[in-house]
Design goal:
The complex is a heterodimer of chains A (about 400) and B (about 325). Chain A is of the alpha+beta class and about 400 residues long. Chain A is built from 13 helices and eight strands. Helices cover about 40% and strands about 15% of the residues of chain A. Chain A starts with 6 loop residues before the first strand and ends with a helix. Chain B folds into two domains: about 230 residues, Peptidase C12, ubiquitin carboxyl-terminal hydrolase (Ubiquitin C-terminal Hydrolase UCH-l3); about 40 residues. The longest helix of chain B has 22 residues. The chains are: A alpha+beta (about 400), B alpha+beta (about 325). Chain B: InterPro entries: Papain-like_cys_pep_sf, Peptidase_C12_UCH, Peptidase_C12_UCH_sf, Ubiquitinyl_hydrolase_UCH37, UCH_C.
Chain lengths: ~400, ~325
C-alpha cells in the first residue's frame, strides 16, 4: 500500500508515439514507495489519494532508471529539447518506456521552462537511485532539496511546495538514445549528496557524528529543541495513516501503573531511579527554615549525601510525587511527540534501547513516525529488558 | 536579532524565582484567588499582574482606550524622576517577563522610602533604556541576553507540540499580560500592546497606600468586558517578601507557612527545568520488567491503546478533530 511514499513531487504524465512526446495537462504526483522490499513507481492525478495511483509499477531493483531527457549531451546546462522538463522511465528488462514532465515552476532566473535546475536533477537522481536499489539517507536528501531548491521542498509526505507550471511543455523531438544525463552536469551529484550528510544543523543528522559518551538526555533534549525550531524545515517522516494511533507514553505510564511499580522496587532500584531526578528534590526534603533559599546548584556530593540521608520510604514518597507531577506529565507528552515526529532513532540510542532497524523504516534512513514509532519504542524496551534479564541469570 | 524566547508558565513560583534570579531583592508574587480588596490590601501590593487569554475579537485601540486615558506625557516627561518606564511589546513569549519588569522598573528605589531594590543588572538596564522611546525599550528588552536567558531557564521542558499530537492539558491559546501599579500617586495600566500607559482616575489620586482599593473596580470592569465563561484569567499580586514581613511582626506560624510555600515553589521549578528523558526511560524499563514478570505486559499495552482510542473517538465526536488528523492526546 502506498502508505509511506519515500518521495513525492509534482509531475505530469505524457503520451508518446515514435519520437513524439505529448504531455498530458492533468496535474499529478509522481511518487515512490516500498512494499516487501520492492520499490513501486507511481503516478496519480492530484485529485486522487495516494492509495489510488493511476500508474503503479512494481519495479525490480536495478531494472528501472529515471533520467532527464536532454537536448544535448555533455552541455554545461541541462535543457530539454522541448520547452518543458521531461523525464523518462526505462527498463533494462523490456523496451517499455514512460515519459513524465515536471510540474513545479521553473527555477530558472529568467523562467526558461526547459531548464533543469539543480533541484530538478537531484530529484531525478534520487528517483533513479531508489529504482537502482541504492540505500539513501532520505532525510538528508530531502533536506538538501529544500535547502538548495530555492524555497520549495519535496517531502515524503506529499506536497511539493513550488508553484505549478501552468503550461505543459509543447511536444518536441527527443533523442533516440538515453543516458549520459549525469555526466552533463559536471560534479558527481552522489558525492554532493553524501558530503551534505555530515554537515547541516538538524539534530537528527548531527547525532551520527557525536560520541556516544555524551549525556543521552542532553542529546535528546537538543533533538527536541531542533524539532521546535525547524518543524517547518525538517520533513517529518510520513505519518502511518489516520487509522493507527497506537498509544502514548502518557497512557502507558499513568500514575495508576507507575505508583504500584514503585512500591515493588528494591532499594537499589530506588537509588537508580533517584539518580535520574534533579538533586534539589532531595536536598529540599532535608531543609529546615533556616536553610538559605538561593541555592540553585547542588553539588554532586551534596546530592548523593542528601539521597543517602533519606530513608527508603522517603525516597518512595519523592518518586511518587514526581510521577504524579504535571511537569512529568508534560514530559511524557513531549517525548511521545518526539517519537512520533522522527525522534525514535535518537531516543533509542540515547537510552540504549534495542530497537528494530535502529528506529528507521526498513530499507531507508527515514525514521519511523506516528504510532509505529511509539510501538517500535515499546517493543524496543521489551527486547532490551528481556535481554538484560537473560544476561543476569 | 535576539535569540528565541520560550513560553513560561504564569505561576507565582516561577515569577518569584525569575525576578530573584535577575537580582531583585525581597519581592515575591502571590496568586489572588478572588478579586477582593481586603485580601489584596493585606498583601500591601506593589502592583498587580492580570493575565488572560488574548481574545481575537478585541484589537488594541489607537485613539482611545476602552477604559481610562492614554498618558503619553508620562512617558515623554523630561524629568528623570517623573518619567515612566514603559516598553512596547515586541515578542509574544516575552510578555509575562515584560509585564513584571514594567512594574519593577517603575518602583525601583530605596526600600527605606518604599521603593524596591531591583539589583545591579536591572538597575543598569533601566538606566541604559531610560531615554529610549517605548518601541526601542521593547527591542532592548528582547535583545537582553541576561533577561532572555533567565526567562528561558524557567521555560517548560516541553515547549512544543506537533500538529498531529497534543498532550493532555496543553493550552495553545495566547495569553496576554497587563500590569497595574501606582506611579507618582497615579493608577496606571501598563500594556505593551497599547501605544502608551493608560491612566485610570485623576493624576495624583492614587497614592500607593490606596492602590488595592483603587485597582479592584478597574479590574472588575476589565473582566466584565468579556462574556462570562469566555475568559480565563489569572491575577498575581507583586508584593514584599512575605517571609520578611512575618519575621518582622514575629508571626512564627506565618513564617513557617511561607517557608513551606517557598520549598514547594523550588520543588516545582526544579522539576520544570529537569530533562526527564533518562528518568522516563528507567521507569519504562522498570514497569516493562514488572509487567513481563507478572505476565501482564500485553494487557497493559492493550489497556493503554484502548484509552488512547477512546480519547481520539471522544474528540472526533466533539468535532475537534478533522478527518485525517490523528490526535492522540
Amino acid at each position: 500500500m502506498a502508505a509511506n511514499p519515500l518521495i513525492t513531487f509534482k509531475a505530469g504524465k505524457c503520451t508518446f508515439s515514435g519520437k513524439k512526446v505529448t504531455p498530458v495537462p492533468t496535474p499529478g504526483y509522481l511518487y515512490l514507495y516500498f512494499e516487501d522490499d520492492m520499490p513501486h513507481f507511481c503516478w496519480r492525478p492530484r485529485s486522487q489519494p495516494a492509495s489510488h495511483p493511476e500508474i503503479d509499477l512494481f519495479m525490480v531493483p536495478g531494472d528501472g532508471s529515471f533520467e532527464p531527457v536532454p537536448r544535448e549531451y555533455g552541455a554545461e546546462e541541462l535543457h530539454s529539447p522541448t520547452n518543458g522538463r521531461i523525464y523518462t522511465l526505462k527498463f533494462q528488462s523490456s523496451s517499455q518506456k514512460h515519459f513524465f514532465w515536471m510540474q513545479s515552476k521553473s527555477q530558472h532566473a529568467e523562467g526558461t521552462p526547459s531548464w533543469f535546475s539543480q533541484r530538478d536533477q537531484r530529484l531525478g537522481q534520487i528517483v533513479n537511485s531508489i529504482l537502482q536499489g541504492e540505500e539513501l539517507d532520505m532525510e538528508a536528501e530531502v533536506a538538501d532539496l529544500r535547502n538548495g531548491g530555492g524555497g520549495g521542498g519535496a517531502d515524503g509526505d506529499g506536497d511539493d511546495e513550488m508553484d505549478v507550471d501552468e503550461h505543459p511543455p509543447e511536444h518536441g523531438r527527443h533523442p533516440s538514445t538515453g543516458g549520459a544525463g549525469q555526466g552533463a552536469t559536471g560534479a558527481d551529484p552522489r558525492e554532493e549528496g553524501s558530503a551534505s550528510r555530515e554537515g547541516g544543523g538538524d539534530g537528527a543528522r548531527a547525532l551520527s557524528s557525536q560520541p556516544s559518551s555524551q549525556d543521552p538526555s542532553a542529546v535528546v533534549q537538543n533533538f527536541l529543541k531542533s524539532l521546535q525550531g525547524s518543524s517547518q524545515n525538517t520533513p517529518p517522516p510520513p505519518p502511518s495513516g489516520a487509522d493507527k494511533p497506537y498509544t502514548t507514553l502518557s497512557d502507558l505510564l499513568t500514575p495508576s501503573q507507575t505508583i504500584p511499580y514503585i512500591s515493588t522496587t528494591t532499594p537499589a532500584q530506588l537509588d537508580n531511579l533517584c539518580a535520574f531526578l534533579p538533586p534539589e528534590l532531595f536536598t529540599l526534603s532535608q531543609e529546615s527554615s533556616s536553610t538559605p533559599d538561593h541555592a540553585t546548584h547542588t553539588s554532586a556530593a551534596d546530592a548523593s549525601a542528601a539521597i543517602d540521608a533519606l530513608s527508603t520510604e522517603q525516597k518512595r514518597e519523592i518518586l511518587v510525587r514526581v510521577l504524579r507531577s504535571p511537569q512529568l506529565q508534560q514530559s511524557l507528552g513531549s517525548l511521545t511527540v518526539a517519537l512520533r515526529d522522527g525522534g525514535l532513532p535518537i531516543v533509542s540510542e540515547a537510552l540504549g534501547l534495542k530497537v528494530k532497524n535502529g528506529g528507521n523504516v526498513r530499507h531507508a534512513s527515514v525514521p519511523l513516525g506516528g504510532g509505529e514509532a511509539v510501538e517500535a519504542f515499546v517493543d524496543g524496551v521489551r527486547t532490551t529488558v528481556e535481554e538484560e534479564k537473560k544476561s543476569k541469570s | 536579532m535576539s535569540g528565541g524566547w520560550n513560553t513560561i508558565e504564569s505561576d507565582a513560583g516561577v515569577f518569584t524565582y525569575l525576578i530573584d534570579s535577575l537580582g531583585v531583592k525581597n519581592v515575591q508574587f502571590e496568586e489572588l484567588i478572588s478579586l477582593d480588596p481586603d485580601s489584596l490590601q493585606a498583601l500591601n501590593p506593589l502592583g498587580v499582574i492580570f493575565l488572560f487569554k488574548y481574545p481575537t475579537g478585541e484589537k488594541p485601540t489607537t485613539d482611545k482606550p476602552l477604559d481610562g486615558e492614554f498618558d503619553f506625557a508620562a512617558v515623554d516627561s523630561q524629568d528623570d524622576e517623573e518619567r515612566l518606564w514603559f516598553a512596547a511589546q515586541t515578542i509574544q513569549n516575552a510578555c509575562g517577563t515584560q509585564a513584571l519588569l514594567s512594574v519593577l522598573l517603575n518602583k525601583a528605589g530605596d526600600p527605606e522610602d518604599g521603593g524596591i531594590d531591583i539589583g545591579p543588572n536591572l538597575g543598569d538596564f533601566k538606566e541604559f533604556t531610560g531615554a529610549f522611546p517605548a518601541d526601542l525599550r521593547g527591542e532592548a528588552l528582547s535583545n537582553s541576553d541576561l533577561i532572555r536567558e533567565t526567562h528561558n531557564s524557567f521555560a517548560r521542558s516541553s515547549p512544543f507540540t506537533s500538529d498531529a499530537t497534543r498532550y493532555a492539558g496543553e493550552d495553545d491559546d495566547v495569553f496576554h499580560f497587563i500590569a497595574y501599579t501606582s506611579i507618582n500617586s497615579t493608577l496606571y495600566e501598563l500594556d505593551g500592546l497599547q501605544p502608551a500607559p493608560i491612566r485610570h482616575g485623576d493624576a495624583g489620586a492614587c497614592p500607593s497606600e490606596i492602590f488595592a482599593d483603587a485597582v479592584v473596580p478597574v479590574l472588575q470592569r476589565r473582566i466584565e468586558r468579556y462574556p462570562a465563561g469566555e475568559i480565563r484569567f489569572n491575577l498575581l499580586a507583586m508584593c514584599e517578601d512575605l517571609r520578611v514581613r512575618a519575621k518582622e511582626v514575629g508571626d512564627a506560624e506565618g513564617l513557617e507557612r511561607e517557608e513551606a510555600k517557598r520549598r514547594e515553589w523550588r520543588w516545582e521549578n526544579a522539576l520544570r527545568r529537569h530533562n526527564f528523558v533518562g528518568f522516563i526511560g528507567e521507569v519504562m524499563k522498570g514497569v516493562t520488567a514488572q509487567k513481563l514478570e507478572e505476565g501482564s505486559h500485553e494487557a497493559w499495552i492493550e489497556d493503554a491503546k484502548k484509552a488512547t482510542q477512546k480519547r481520539v473517538d471522544d474528540r472526533k465526536k466533539k468535532g475537534e478533530v478533522g478527518g485525517d488528523e490523528m490526535d492522540v492526546s
